[in-house]
Specification:
By secondary structure, the chain is α+β, with helices and mostly antiparallel strands. It folds into 2 domains: about 150 residues, Jelly Rolls (Sandwich); about 170 residues, Hypothetical protein af1432 (Orthogonal Bundle). About 35% of the residues lie in helices and about 20% in strands. The protein contains 10 helices and 13 strands. The strands form 3 sheets. It has a 6-stranded antiparallel β-sheet with strand order 4-5-6-13-8-11, with helices on one face. A 5-stranded antiparallel β-sheet has the order 1-7-12-9-10. The protein has a two-stranded parallel ribbon with strand order 2-3. Strand 4 and strand 5 form a beta hairpin.
Length: about 325
């Protein structure tokens, strides 16, 4: 059993104890050892980013109750359990979750319960609005979960320190990609891959020299060849044994600059040989670049960018992705 949340803003703040959570010492609370009371805003341990808070509410004999606050389009992925007796469940308190498994998708709201015993295939849970829920697990995982949250923050911070534009850009791309992926009704495993890969699609730029990455003008052909290596570096970093939860997004990082007509890099893949989540990132990444202020170009208007992507449908961009993108692009400004 393993799960992870892909929902971290580049300059978000993670603390070992979230700002809104007060940790309790029950020995000093005057209660009996077998009965514990926690009120709103209290917990045993917590970690948070700008977009998410997880709080350990209770733990006993391996069972854990973990309170989650997940911001809109935050994503939680579940992988098959290593134990045939493992139980995992979610009780929704507030908001709406989009739950997908196999080829099924359902929206659930407050009062709904999701029970998995055990998880047999990938399950993807997306917050369609700011959502709160309690997660129950029969296997202790909070400390590992917290470590991965902190790792995501550390990696996102490294991107921010290397290139501030890239940090905010990556979080926008993650949200835009998840919204487009929902429109395409991607299966659970691909949706988890999309969210992870979109968030870290540019992580390979950490290895690109500053004088190239931050060059105010256009790159020379030689410099561009070096810049293109960020796709390979990104795949290598995400496939590292040190980052097992990032493996699922490595192909997106590697292929997000491939183009439908074969003119992209690093491999010149064509058409549906390009992994669909990577093709989604290719479109929304281009849109965000077109509409953002860059040292070497003025930003296009939203209408200009949308029209350019529409024109390049079936040329640079997968027609399936463009059609889905056009249906949801008007929602981007509200994210």
């Amino acid at each position: 059993m393993s799960h992870v949340v892909y929902n971290c803003r580049g300059r978000g703040t993670i603390t070992s104890v979230a700002k809104r959570v007060q940790t309790l010492n029950f020995e000093n609370q005057g209660l009996t050892p077998w009965l514990r009371i926690m009120r709103d805003g209290e917990g045993l341990d917590s970690a948070s980013t700008d977009n998410m808070t997880i709080t350990l509410l209770a733990t006993y004999d391996g069972v854990e109750l973990i309170w989650h606050e997940l911001k809109q389009f935050g994503l939680m992925g579940f992988n098959p359990s290593s134990s045939a007796k493992a139980f995992e469940g979610i009780v929704v308190l507030k908001g709406t979750l989009r739950v997908s498994w196999y080829d099924h998708t359902e929206l659930v709201g407050p009062g709904a319960t999701i029970a998995m015993s055990p998880v047999e295939d990938a399950v993807c849970v997306i917050a369609m609005e700011d959502t709160e829920f309690v997660y129950i697990s029969s296997i202790p995982l909070f400390q590992a979960y917290k470590q991965w949250v902190e790792l995501f923050h550390k990696m996102a911070t490294e991107i921010a320190e290397k290139d501030g534009y890239t940090a905010s850009h990556c979080e926008r791309i993650r949200k835009y990609s998840v919204l487009t992926g929902c429109e395409l009704d991607l299966p659970a495993r691909d949706m988890v891959s999309l969210s992870c890969g979109a968030l870290f699609h540019d992580i390979g730029k950490i290895r690109i020299p500053d004088e190239i990455l931050r060059k105010p003008g256009r790159l020379t052909p030689e410099e561009f060849d070096i810049m293109k290596m960020h796709t390979i570096y990104g795949r290598e970093m995400m496939q590292s044994p040190l980052h097992p939860f990032l493996h699922v997004g490595s192909v997106v990082a590697e292929q997000h600059h491939e183009r439908y007509d074969g003119s992209g890099y690093p491999y010149g893949l064509k058409g549906e040989d390009i992994y669909l989540p990577a093709a989604i990132v290719a479109v929304v990444d281009s849109y965000d670049a077109m509409t953002s202020e860059r040292p070497y170009q003025r930003p296009k208007s939203k209408q200009e960018a949308v029209e350019e992507i529409r024109t390049l449908r079936g040329k640079l961009y997968d027609p399936r992705v463009v059609d889905a993108f056009l249906k949801v692009v008007n929602k981007f400004d509200s994210l």
